Amino acid sequence: MRVLAAMSGGVDSAVAAARAVDAGHDVTGVHLALSAKPGTLRTGARGCCTVEDAHDARRVADILGIPFYVWDFAERFTEDVVDDFVAEYAAGRTPNPCLKCNERIKFAALLDKAIALGFDAVATGHYARLSLVDGQPELRRSADDGKDQSYVLATLRPDQLRHAMFPLGGSVKPAVREEAAERGLMIAEKPDSHDICFIPDGDTRAFLTKHLGERPGSLVDDETGAVLGAHAGVHGFTVGQRHGLGLRVPAADGRPRYVLSLEPVSGNVRVGTAEKLGVREIVATAPTWPSGAEIAAGTRCVAQVRAHGGTAPAEASVVDGKLVVRIDGELRGVAPGQAVVLYREDAGGDVVLGSATITATS
């Protein structure tokens, strides 16, 4: 097959490309330039898509003996990922930009261009397993639980997954680094990128304030309605947050307070005890089904609301086009804007059933 290997300049995508070559595919490497003003150097594990990353990807391609190109997707990335991220926070929601990048950049813009150029598949360094069962794609968790990325891939459609390759799905990260070293790849010990790639200093609140300005509001006790403090904008908070609230008045019971909900119109950030964070039901919109099959009413599953953690047994149904998930017990820190991803309960919570965007909880 003709395979386009997406090469970020990191160790995972490098080994994924190398394995595609070893499998006998006709591989071409491509690095996506996602920033209009890329920095020249990374700061440890902060940020990505720098000039240094592009050079690292090119050096790996040279070692592998494959053609290599840099494609400028900066404008598309800004519109579909960065602008969306800012708009979601302004609306009081908590988006996942990695999920959006995979959906709109790597497996929409990139894959569409690859297919138009005659490639059969796009290979990436994601940690997830993919197979065909009765002609339908089956997306599963990776062998490395700590690195599993099936959550951020769960919005992909069957037609996209049929043209995807995840060569690292059956591996654990230490083995991937060891393999990179054995292959003589200089990025074998390069730090993984953390946080949000387009906020390299990790200060999300400052980034959002720069784009949205200050929008003063009040911190309100959810139980009494008392004003406990002031803030510069709801975009500086997320549901479940405990630290950095800036409460002027300590709680009468001396217990910690958490963000319970955000009200962008009034500017109120409601806070309360940890017990009030418990969610038993999730309503989510725009469901996607990676295998192409919508779930049946009352499907038993494992629900996950964060990329790592936030899982619970549940029962799910589609009601009037919306996904309704009833949790066994409770999940805490569930925020509108996040994705809820369902996994097959009878498969040990390993196989992805579907994904949808959370709009309400109760």
TrEMBL record:
Active-site residues from the entry: C101 (nucleophile), C197 (cysteine persulfide intermediate)
Instruction: Return the InterPro entries for the record.
Output: MnmA-like, MnmA-like_C, MnmA-like_central, MnmA-like_central_sf, Rossmann-like_a/b/a_fold
Q: What class of enzyme is it?
A: transferase
Where does the tRNA-specific 2-thiouridylase MnmA-like central domain start and stop, copy by copy? 206-272
Where would I find the tRNA-specific 2-thiouridylase MnmA-like C-terminal domain in this sequence?
Answer: 280-358
Give me the Gene Ontology terms describing cellular component. cytoplasm
Q: Where is the signal peptide?
A: none
Could you list this entry's UniProt keywords, alphabetically sorted.
Answer: ATP-binding, Cytoplasm, Disulfide bond, Nucleotide-binding, RNA-binding, Transferase, tRNA processing, tRNA-binding
Report the EC code(s) recorded for this entry.
2.8.1.13
Record localization: Cytoplasm
Q: Which GO terms describe its biological process?
A: tRNA wobble position uridine thiolation
* GO molecular function ontology, one term from the record: tRNA-uridine 2-sulfurtransferase activity
CDD domains under this entry? MnmA_TRMU-like
User: Which parts of the sequence bind ATP?
Assistant: A6, M7, S8, G9, G10, V11, D12, S13, L32, G125
What does the function comment of this entry state? Catalyzes the 2-thiolation of uridine at the wobble position (U34) of tRNA, leading to the formation of s(2)U34.
Entry protein name: tRNA-specific 2-thiouridylase MnmA
Q: Which gene encodes it?
A: mnmA
